[in-house]
Amino acid sequence: MAKSALVTGATGQDGRYLVDLLRRYDYVVHAQSRRAPLPGAAVDGIQWHVGDLTSGAFLERLIADTQPDEIYNLAAVSRPIMSWQVPRETAEINAFLPQNICELLLKHKPGCRLFQASSSDIFGDGFSERQDEHTHCVPKSPYAVAKLYGHRIVGAYRKQYGLHACSGILFNHESPYRPLSFVSQKIAYAAAAAACGLKDTPELDERGRPILSNGKLLLGDLGVRRDFGFAGDYAEVMYMILQHPTADDFVIGTGEDHSIQEFCELAFQSVGLDWTDYVSVDPKLIRKTDNHYTRADPAKLRSVFNWRPKVAFPDLVSSMVQARVKLLQDEMASKPRSSGMKLS
């Protein structure tokens, strides 16, 4: 009999890769989101469940009715900067939802395995050159504080009740599915737009301005360094962690770090352009509480699973840009006169 899995937050980039992976392993997949492509429908073994996970009644019905063998909790307010605008919602989803899931598993399906998507933002800044499962945590935003609570509470329920509950401490991971609200995708989009000859893009930034405005992409601190990986690789790790006979927590990252400037260099280079002609720094975009440096120490992950990332950083950046080039070319071909795009 096929296993069943419940994936919360299934329309995000991680959810898309994870759902595809689970289908390849012949799982019956239950996918939750606030909005789904085909609400209530089954497509290729995927059952969509549309609803708000902060609703206790909806969450209990979801777990009680689906009786999953595995749960991958990917639902979150996913941007630290947004968490300042909705701190209460951030706490409800990022902190208390994992605890509520644990409580409902004890009630309805104690043998179910749980993967909790934790975040490297829990670490904050400055305590070690690399971050592993034992690094001191000093979270700096409502997002990070809530994620740390979710991370710790899952471990507490594992110890107290014997739940097979694991947390993956995910470092930055990107893909062509990354939303434009993230800086990595803004850079990829701007490079693609410049390559297509655009000076002003139809897509806007958080301030309501074109992401590429008068031929320029405005960014904050270019010296911020991140451990960037490929979301598809990390979805495979989530699955591997939950198949392991012993429930545990793992740092998930490449062990490398790259600056935002390097991301810009590679993105524009992949389409034959010089990034310095298109990128400018706007001091107003520099975030006071941003983590300035993250670099995973994935030694435990490598030791237990012999895991290495398949997609290298330059290939990741190039794939994101090329995907955006194709989308823009398709848009320009279908709406050549009414697109509102200004060509250089």
Provide a quick synopsis of the model.
By secondary structure, this protein is an alpha/beta fold. The protein is built from ten helices and 17 strands.
Describe the structure using short key phrases.
single chain; 344 residues; alpha/beta; Rossmann fold; UDP-galactose 4-epimerase, domain 1; 2 domains; 8-stranded mixed sheet; 3-stranded mixed sheet; 10 helices; globular
Give an account of the 3D structure:
The model has no long low-confidence stretch (mean pLDDT 93). The protein contains ten helices and 17 strands. α1 crosses α7 and α6 crosses α10. It has two domains: 4-174 and 229-252, Rossmann fold (3-Layer(aba) Sandwich), CATH 3.40.50.720; 183-225 and 257-294 and 313-343, UDP-galactose 4-epimerase, domain 1 (Alpha-Beta Complex), CATH 3.90.25.10. With 344 residues, it is α/β, with parallel strands linked by helices. The chain has helices at residues 13-24, 56-66, 80-83, 87-108, 142-161, 183-195, 231-243, 260-269, 299-305, 313-334; strands spanning 4-8, 28-33, 42-43, 46-50, 70-73, 113-119, 164-170, 173-174, 198-200, 212-213, 216-219, 225-226, 229-230, 250-252, 258-259, 279-281, 342-343.
